[in-house]
Automatic annotation (TrEMBL):
Domain of life: Bacteria
InterPro entries: GH, GH_1_N_CS, Glyco_hydro_1
GO molecular function: beta-glucosidase activity
Gene Ontology process terms (BP): carbohydrate catabolic process
Family: Belongs to the glycosyl hydrolase 1 family.
Keyword annotations of the record: Glycosidase, Hydrolase
Organism field: Pseudolactococcus reticulitermitis
Gene3D superfamilies, per the entry: Glycosidases (3.20.20.80)
GO cellular component, one term: cytosol
Name of this protein: 6-phospho-beta-glucosidase
């Protein structure tokens, strides 16, 4: 195996999917606190206020808020040397726009970060992981209002300054490229789906406002990158892109061209801006042709150029196919699907498993950006079964991860500068796409059901000891 000796092995989480404690010690409501269980598109499965008798998964999640010492100890037992987590903006600034932070919220993250370091892990912190404060949504319509740029910078400065000597690795926005699609209007950009000024006459999307909001968010990200380097020049700050790798379904030229257009718009645009500091020509043309090119305020171009990231981090779960044939078979995916690849098998949730696609993606990204890469989400969601003796046999997860780790190894051997791997959901948590607990990713099983019932007891799955050995041997024992 060719993994470098300082390779970062660990797991990844998001505050809204596993923390719970949604109203503890001054925390304000965040977008996920108004989302319910169900299979409807994420951005529309949303209630305007907390309703009595309705179950909101993020309110309790798996209650990491009260179990963090126990959980972090288990991560340490698996030999993690990095742990990806997010900070909930509304735990620090409850409405998003206060002048002074909530000290109790900061104190909670003090304790979590100290516990991670005590157990041998360096934190990798995401500043915004689909969890904007509801105050930002209701009072500003998210990043469609430029004032939110400075509010986000204030929040980022607060936590980066607080943890400047304890945290080296940072991500500004999770899967920011979803902001280019209507999936991201609420999750990434905080645009209120119930606001008739944004969505008049029952409209489901507002492309012009969305790309303006995305531009504002990219300006905010760039400002934070520049500020972060001033706070601590040793910070490594990354973008985070949902890389749904795609293939043309056939060699038909129309399929090849359509796939290229999808890849540029969805997978490459935001990453290009965050790594290079300029809008690429293909996107400038696309936006101007549709008369939706965003307004650049004075200094925006310079800000984007000065705030480029140090590393490119991304999620990878599956691949899809693109075709002009509307009747081609469909497949599922990470908040969005595509056309099915006849050469691949699918998971229980319809996501096609493609480890070779990860190697292809790593080679493609290295060729395009020539910078350190990190896979910060990858894993298999499955309906694991807890046996009477407390065991969970998840050989299917071991197989999935083994094949993807082999793909990473092969890419490193071919010259890819891959510095780390944080698999998604090292402990079972709430699904971002559906709000379910039944779709489990973890090495650790949590006794919690879709309706919020369960003991919250933790159990080690078979994959727990397998991943422990993988890290102990730096990827040699698979």
């Amino acid at each position: 195996m060719t993994f470098p000796k300082d390779f970062l092995w660990g797991g990844a989480t998001a505050a809204n999917q596993f923390e719970g404690g949604y109203d503890q010690r001054g925390k304000g409501l965040a977008v996920p606190d108004l989302k319910t269980v169900g299979g409807v598109k994420l951005a529309r499965r949303f209630t305007p206020t907390v309703e009595a008798g309705v179950y909101y998964p993020s309110h309790k999640a798996i209650d990491f808020y009260h179990h963090y010492k126990e959980d972090i100890k288990l991560f340490g037992e698996m030999n993690f040397n990095i742990f990806r987590m997010s900070i909930s903006w509304s735990r620090i600034f409850p409405n998003g726009d206060e002048l002074e932070p909530n000290e109790a919220g900061l104190a909670f993250y003090d304790d979590v970060i100290d516990e991670l370091i005590k157990n041998g892990m360096t934190p990798l912190i995401t500043l915004s992981h689909f969890e904007l404060p509801m105050g930002i949504v209701e009072n500003y319509n998210g990043f469609s209002d430029r004032r939110v740029i400075d509010l986000f910078v204030r929040y980022a400065e607060t936590v980066m300054t607080r943890y400047k000597s304890k945290v080296k690795y940072w991500i500004t926005f999770n899967e920011m490229n979803f902001g280019a699609m209507d999936h991201g209007e609420l999750t990434v950009l905080g645009m209120n789906p119930n606001d008739e000024t944004l969505y008049p006459n029952g409209a489901k999307t507002n492309e012009k406002v969305r790309f303006q909001a995305l531009h504002n968010a990219m300006v905010a990200s760039a400002k934070v990158v520049k500020l972060g380097h001033e706070i601590n020049p040793d910070f490594m700050i990354g973008c985070m892109i949902c890389h749904i790798t795609s293939y043309p379904l056939t060699p038909k030229p129309e399929d090849v061209l359509k796939r290229k257009e999808f890849d540029l718009l969805f997978a490459k645009f935001v990453g290009d801006v965050q790594t290079r500091g300029v809008y690429p020509p293909y996107m400038t043309t696309y936006l101007k042709n549709k008369a939706i090119f965003p307004v650049f305020e004075t200094g925006d171009a310079e800000i984007l150029k000065a705030g480029t990231v140090d590393m490119y981090t991304f999620s990878y779960y599956m691949t899809i196919c693109i075709t002009t044939d509307e009747n081609a078979n469909e497949t599922g995916g990470n908040l969005m699907g595509g056309k099915a690849n006849p050469y691949l098998k699918a998971s229980e949730w319809g996501w096609q498993v493609d480890p070779i696609g990860l190697e292809y993606t790593l080679l493609d990204l290295q060729d395009r950006y020539n910078m350190p890469l990190m896979v910060v989400e990858n894993g298999l969601g499955f309906a694991d079964e807890l046996q009477a003796d407390g065991t969970i046999v998840d050989d299917y997860r071991i197989e999935y991860m083994r094949d993807h780790i082999k793909a990473m190894d092969s890419a490193i051997e071919k010259g890819v500068n891959l510095i780390g791997y944080t698999m998604w959901g090292p402990i079972d948590l709430v699904s971002a796409g559906t709000g379910e607990m039944a779709k489990r990713y973890g090495f650790i099983y949590v006794d919690m059901n879709n309706d919020g019932t369960g003991s919250l007891k933790r159990y080690k799955k078979k994959s727990f000891d397998w991943y422990k050995a993988v890290i102990a041997t730096n990827g040699e024992k698979l």
